[in-house]
């Protein structure tokens, strides 16, 4: 039975219903998708919480609300491509407006805020229990990505001023990058195997090597597509910053860590090494008298 509400409050509650029933559908779809039985169970529990929220608001509005299927498929797709944890936490980041709505509604319905807060705390506890393989190997990805950014931006900066030929720079950079990727992968394999952290050495080395070689390709691509070496170098630096931005945004959302601090540190190191290497390349070319 719907309870008496003013139009403004009822409108807020209907929006709250929409949000809850939409997230219920997202969690149910994810529960059906994930192969890990424990993770699937957690998804179903969170979905049940969302449905309880929906039913709670329905008591006051007396209305049936259909989910936003566009949002359902959007976040479902994000979770499939970038990982369950990232998809869920990205979705939950948009909850500030909902929390503000609940606070305002609590002025009319005092029990609303405490009920929803208790349910949300339960959901947060469940989210922390999700065990996702790709997040267990973030350290390996960071190793490959960071080393590739620092080493290759530095290498390409030095080669740019020393060689001044985009094809030669791309060739030298690619050879260096591939060799370094295999070396990093092998080192991560041996390092993980010697530790007792429970990680699979083959998977750890694969994540490191793949992150390294992917970064190498992205950084060298401007030298293959652009005719002028200095323009290619500037675009490579921009690509490096974009890669650092996207990766740190992903980690900050998935692991709940500071984005600004990580981004600033990683970008500062990579660009600092690139600038220093650029100067070294100029000095070596000048003193060795090499002309290409």
Explain the overall architecture.
- The protein has 292 residues and is mainly alpha-helical.
- The chain has two domains: 7-131, Up-down Bundle (Ferritin), CATH 1.20.1260; 134-288, no CATH class.
- It is built from twelve helices and no strands.
- The protein has helices at 7-33, 37-61, 69-82, 84-92, 96-105, 110-128, 133-136, 138-163, 166-194, 201-225, 229-255, 259-288.
- Helix 8 (138-163) packs parallel to helix 10 (201-225).
- The longest helix is centred in the C-terminal third of the chain and has 30 residues, at 259-288.
- The chain is elongated and about 85 Å long.
- The mean pLDDT is 79.
Brief description of this entry?
The chain has 292 residues and is mostly helical. It has two domains: 7-131, Ferritin (Up-down Bundle), CATH 1.20.1260; 134-288, no CATH class.
Secondary structure elements and pairings:
Blueprint: H1 7-33, H2 37-61, H3 69-82, H4 84-92, H5 96-105, H6 110-128, H7 133-136, H8 138-163, H9 166-194, H10 201-225, H11 229-255, H12 259-288
Quick one: biggest sheet?
none
Number of domains: 2
Low-pLDDT segments: none
* Tally of DSSP helical segments: 12
Helix coverage percent: over 70%
Key words describing this protein structure:
about 290 residues
């Amino acid at each position: 039975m719907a309870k008496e509400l003013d139009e403004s409050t009822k409108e807020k509650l209907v929006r709250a219903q929409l949000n809850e029933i939409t997230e219920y559908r997202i969690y149910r779809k994810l529960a059906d998708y994930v192969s890990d039985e424990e993770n699937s169970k957690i998804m179903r529990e969170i979905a049940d919480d969302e449905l309880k929220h929906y039913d709670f608001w329905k008591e006051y509005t007396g209305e049936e609300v259909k989910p936003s299927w566009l949002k359902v498929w959007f976040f479902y797709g994000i979770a499939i491509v970038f990982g369950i944890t990232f998809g869920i936490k990205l979705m939950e980041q948009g909850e500030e407006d909902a929390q503000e709505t609940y606070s305002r509604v609590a002025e009319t319905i005092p029990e609303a805020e405490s009920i929803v807060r208790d349910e949300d705390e339960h959901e947060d506890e469940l989210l922390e229990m999700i065990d996702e393989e790709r997040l267990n190997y973030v350290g390996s990805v960071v190793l490959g990505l960071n080393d590739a950014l620092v080493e290759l931006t530095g290498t390409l900066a030095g080669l740019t001023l020393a060689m001044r030929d985009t094809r030669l720079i791309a060739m030298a950079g690619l050879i260096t990058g591939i060799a370094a990727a295999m070396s990093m992968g092998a080192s991560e394999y041996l390092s993980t195997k010697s530790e007792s952290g429970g990680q699979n050495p083959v998977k750890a080395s694969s994540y490191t090597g793949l992150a390294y070689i992917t970064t190498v390709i992205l950084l060298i691509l401007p030298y293959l597509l652009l005719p002028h070496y200095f323009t290619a170098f500037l675009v490579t630096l921009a690509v490096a910053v974009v890669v650092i931005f996207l990766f740190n945004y992903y980690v900050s959302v998935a692991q709940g860590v500071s984005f600004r601090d990580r981004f600033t540190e990683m970008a500062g190191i990579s660009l600092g090494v690139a600038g220093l290497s650029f100067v070294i390349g100029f000095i070596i070319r000048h003193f060795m008298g090499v002309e290409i």
